[in-house]
Amino acid sequence: MLNYILKRLVYMIPTLIGMSIISFAIIQLPPGDYLTSLLSTLADGGAPIDPATVERLRSQYGLDQPIWIQYGKWMLGILTRGDFGFSFEWNQPVSEVIWSRMGSTLAISFAALLLVWAVSLPIGIYSAVRRNSIGDHVFTFFGFIGLAVPNFILALTLMYVSFRVFGQSVGGLFSPEYVDAPWSLEKLWDLILHLWIPILVIGMSGTAAMIRILRANLTDELSKPYVTTARAKGLPEYKVIVKYPVRIALNPFVSAIGWVLPELVSGVTITAIVLNLPTAGPLLLRALVAQDMYLAGSFILLLSVLTLVGMLVSDILLALLDPRIRYN
Amino acid sequence: MEKPVLSVENLSLDFHLRTHILHAVRDVSFDLHRGRTLALVGESGSGKSVTARSLMRIVDKPGVMVGGRIILRTQGREVDLAQLASNSPEVRAVRGARIGLIFQEPMSSLSPVHTIGSQIDEVIRLHSGMDKRAARARTVELLGQVEIPNPAEMADRYTFEFSGGMRQRAMIAMALAVNPDILIADEPTTALDVTTQAEILDLIKRLQTERGMAVLLITHDMGVVAEVADDVAVMRFGRIVETGTVDAIFHAPQHAYTQRLLASTLKLEQPADARAEAVITPQPLLTVKGLTKVYGGAKGFLGTKKFALKAVDDVSLVLHAGENLGVVGESGSGKTTLGRLILRIVEPTTGQVLYRQKDGTEIDVTALSKSDLRKFHADVRLIFQDPFASLNPRMTIRQIIGDPLVVEGKLKGKEIEEKVAELLRLVGLSPDVMERYPHAFSGGQRQRIGIARALALDPRIIIADEATSALDVSIRSQILDLLLEIQSRLDLSFIFISHDISVVRYFCDRVAVMHRGKLVEIGPAETICTSPSEDYTRALISAVPNPDPRNKRMLHRTRFSALSTST
């Protein structure tokens, strides 16, 4: 087992190097750099531009150097000082901008994942065991609605309802009066009141997909001979199902950990913008639009790392769950 | 005589299908007595398995019990299981405790993610209320009783670390854990090799005598019945057509179906009458020289050496024109790989395959280019084991059989259709079936379609890989006779790969015996089957059940000592 984890860690190194190169290359792809977009913004505003200032800024930011030197400096900073570069847009070190966002991103995605598990596990088992019953058809119906409705529409609807019916302030994670207030019980309660909408919205399609996957997997497993064996032992029916086929059909649940992070950042950006969530998605979008290259690059890099870590965690859990994986 | 421990009276089961109700079991009655074995015999679809499962009330979904009584007499009480709800505590107390079940798939009948020990502990704790430690001690004792080496250590292993025979032993240990009065063995050895089958049947017999259990053995193999059963019930289309002692059934069968079943079994005990003498020419059609295939052995991650497996180890043989060569061996002996190597579907590691073309020139198959290999594949065709998986369910019969002709590209439209019709007639099917899909055919008919497809390009050699293993006995002999008849009309040679020695003896002129990748012995079929010269072959042949209860061959079999490691 230890050997397996070690092996996976070693394999991660070349993947990480490749990812860092690709993320740096991606942010260099659009023509121009941060200064070009800054200048065009300034020109739109009618401010005079001094070519000498432009040149000075360019060499100050190191934008006049060849790409591989910029990449080398960037990597060197990350590896030696934990310095991800400087965000032109925010006028702050990238690491400070990112960390403030990463916390809320992780919290929301983790809560959404828990919701997905808590809801889809019992429903998936019910649907598979009572296949084609009325309950199964009802869940299937709502499951497909959950899959089909775009997240941001659901977000808008929920915001409207909670504002109209409950008179709640919506959007963001806190009501305006608590945003800068120190932590207190009231602030926590306020957070919980705000959190349920994004968690529900983000978890919705995942839940629907997971129910379908679990239903299909469990249906296959239920007809396997080992289930008959368990039944022939004289076990009560719920124990037969939960201990044997469900355990094996659980693999997709664990695998989901790996892709929940990139999904949250790249997949629900629109939802996050609609709900005004301080998560990574909208920030990444803005950094890309503004060609704030170190911020964008660091984001992509960090997300890749998180994805890799998520994959590793889910693989380790899978190995714990299924001895066949552990021994191969 | 003591009262039977279990009596089934007029049991009927229905299957509620989408379009109609299928009467799967009708008015079935039988008794199980302590210390005796009742064999329930029948071909696939006769309702024997579902009858056995209904004794434990674990009939799967569309099946419904519609009448009859199942009277269990244990611990001084009489209970009618048919009256109880299938999930009631009373029925659950019977399952596993009073009635144990083992069934066919040793590969999938145990959970892959729990250790063997924990799965057996579970039954013991459920029914006897022992604590963890006592249950494990009992488990280890049971594993020892079913002759699993190092039982204490093996209890902590997972199923995928066990061979098929070992899993079936573990399954038996589980079924017997709480000393049941009845053991239901549903095709317990069908998926196993003959030698392993003999060992498992021995084991069941021994445990039965020790404990005085009643055994209900469900099988389609008359040989197994003759070896182990005391009484026999023959089932067909959901009804029991004949019951009697094993001797009466085998030596004085009354019902026409029983007689037919026995006839098709006994027919395979000797060579076919229709065998034409093969012409032994000095120039063989196919020559295999030192063929070897090694799997693995490459260096793995961090320089660890991976285990190298010689699937086929230095095999040399020849095939003459018009000859049927049988290749027999246990699973894992490399016989299937040998067939694939000859066709070069799998690349050989070393060795040569020489093929004599129609014009008499010899080519080396292992050195052929892609386009030449395609021409070779037109002359040498393959028939597969599984008639269900080897036909594309989305193609019509005409497309399936015509496919090789389309690929070859010599014939067009109407001509292909004529050829397909001709091939269908050749394999005994009506050309009218051309537009139907494979699901409309039975197993035997599908295998005929597979044969027609193999014959489409007028091949000279057919490699049949377990071509009759998935079929019922009566269909099996029909298919073999069909192949022999086709051979008498066309210029064909067969390489017949099988684990079933009686089939090989019926069909083949010469037999090659393989064991762990090596060719142990090769010779005329009669010699190999009656007086083999190698110890391994002798052990293999003597483990084949003999369909004559007065001459139980298997129980007096010779054992091959080097074999003991395999199970």
TrEMBL record, chain A:
It is a multi-pass membrane protein. Belongs to the binding-protein-dependent transport system permease family. Residues 102-312 form the ABC transmembrane type-1 domain. GO terms for cellular component: plasma membrane. GO terms for biological process: transmembrane transport. Keywords: Cell membrane, Membrane, Transmembrane, Transmembrane helix, Transport. It comes from Devosia soli. Its main location: membrane. This is ABC transporter permease. It holds the Pfam family BPD_transp_1. It is found in: Cell membrane. The chain crosses the membrane at residues 9-29, 106-129, 141-163, 191-214, 253-275, 295-321. It comes from the Bacteria. PANTHER family: INNER MEMBRANE ABC TRANSPORTER, OLIGOPEPTIDE ABC TRANSPORTER, PERMEASE PROTEIN.
